[in-house]
Amino acid sequence: MTSGLASPVGAAQVPAPMTGKTLALHDLSLALRSGVRGPGAADWLRTQSMPTDLQPNTIENISNGRLLMALSTREFWLLEPDADASAAAPPSAAVATEAWPLYNQHSHAWLVLAGGPKADMMAKLCGVDLRENAFALGQVAQTQMAHISVIVAHHLWRDTPVFSMFVDQSLADFAWTALSDAMSEFRASTD
Amino acid sequence: MKMMECPLNGPRNISEFTYGGQVQVMPDPQQCSDLEWAKYVFYEDNDLGVVREWWQHTPSSYWFIAERHNGSDVILRTYDPATLFTGRVDFQDEGSPS
Question: A-chain residues within 8 Å CB-CB of B63?
Fold first, then answer.
């Protein structure tokens, strides 16, 4: 665990990887993430030598296992699933002209779902078609899951296709429980 | 379930959206009367026909404009507000010189 930080998941259960034979749910809330928003956000990405041509609602693997996610033409999240979050206070001043930092390290919990039937399982909770033919690698959906707002990103993590899901920190326990419950059907059929 | 086309996120269940009121032309807050401002803030026309409304896609906090027939509830089209609003409005304090 990152010193000074605690995962929002885990009031009711230990936030260890929850693995079935077909699906696995991981809590990456203590992994590093940051972001920038504003009319100048794309210009700031250019100064950081990061891609600036991402379409809204897409995600791309960049260097060293990092991911860049575009939620609009003015909001970008930088995700580092294999780096620990910092307990230092996030910056509050503009990072560039009309570009401000996001507090997504502290506002959102990060859950990762892996496994073959993940789209079938998510169909129990989410109205958007997340099957491979409709929601390919690199796509992002801002929608609802189990009646709460969620950002779902389809990307590779450690060479495995996964769904990263970002939910409000205050709803992290609920999301974990809802996902665990949905997963139980698939575990029961294979264990 | 009824669907709505979000200009940013595509078609989504209507339960993902929040109504934000009628699109109106804002009067000049420094020049208009209290009655004009109250009408802008609190009143809606409530005419039967195609209305232009603010809607928000809640999961992405994205505001856009929808044109909807309020008799049939058919959503005719949706679009980014930049189509109508091209400039930023800067408000001045009431006490500061204009």
Answer: none
pLDDT of amino acid B91: 78
Asked if residue B12 lies in contact with residue B57, where contact means CB atoms within 8 angstroms, the answer is: yes
Asked if residues B34 and B42 have their Cβ atoms less than 8 Å apart, the reply is no
Sign of CA dihedral A145, A148, A152, A158: negative
| Residues spanned by the domain of A130 | 22-190
The domain defined by B3-83 folds into: Folate-binding fold (3.30.2270)
B18 Cβ under 8 Å from any chain A Cβ: no
Beta-bridge partner residues of A110: A166
Of A158, A115, A121, A156, nearest to A139 (Cα)?
A156
- Measured between beta carbons, the chain A residues lying within 8 angstroms of B60 are 71-72, 142
The domain spans of chain B are 3-83
pLDDT the model gives residue A191: 31
At A118, phi and psi to the nearest 5?
-60, -35
CATH number at residue A58: 3.30.1360.120
Of A62-66, A86-90, A145-149, minimum mean pLDDT range: A86-90
For chain A, the average pLDDT equals 88
